[in-house]
Structures are given as structure tokens and as C-alpha cells.
Amino acid sequence: MAFVITEACISEKAADCADVCPVDCIQEGDDQYFIDGDLCIDCGACEAACPVGAIYYEDDLTEDRQIYLDKAKQFFSHN
């Protein structure tokens, strides 16, 4: 997984990130969008487009935001 959508997206769901993704790896969940790390090509378009600053590169996640990586993995394991 390259990029992760974090707490600023919860209930915001602006979808700007999904609109610019060239490989359609961003899907809408119940409360936020998620990035499929198996499909992501690390282009960074989503990070630049996010109006609420919710997207971080996986290696830049703080410890308290690691839960969003786990949440995304869980989302895609059930879809």
C-alpha cells in the first residue's frame, strides 16, 4: 500500500481523490474513501487533490494514524 486516507475524510467524502486517480484504486466505504494498495501506482494525484488533507504516504503515517492503514486493508479484504 502506498497512500492511506485518514480521519479527515470521515464523513467528508469529497471524492476529489477518486476523480483524479488514473487506476481507479479508490473506493467509497460507509464513512470514508479507501485506497486499494494492491492497485495503487504511487502517483500521488490523490494526495494533491484531497481538499481536507486526509491522504498520507504510508511511510509518513504517525503511529496514531496506523489504524487507517489497517482499516483500508480490512475494507478490501471484505470486498
Automatic annotation (TrEMBL):
- Name what cofactor the protein needs: [3Fe-4S] cluster; [4Fe-4S] cluster
Spell out the protein name for this chain: Ferredoxin
Q: Which UniProt keywords apply?
A: 4Fe-4S, Electron transport, Iron, Iron-sulfur, Metal-binding, Transport
Q: Which InterPro entries match?
A: 4Fe4S_Fe-S-bd, 4Fe4S_Fe_S_CS, 7Fe_ferredoxin, RnfB_subfamily
Name the Pfam families on file: Fer4 (PF00037), Fer4_4 (PF12800)
Q: Which SUPFAM superfamilies match?
A: 4Fe-4S ferredoxins
Signal peptide location in the record?
none
Function of this protein?
A: Ferredoxins are iron-sulfur proteins that transfer electrons in a wide variety of metabolic reactions.
**One function term, GO molecular function aspect:** metal ion binding
Originating organism: Paenibacillus montaniterrae
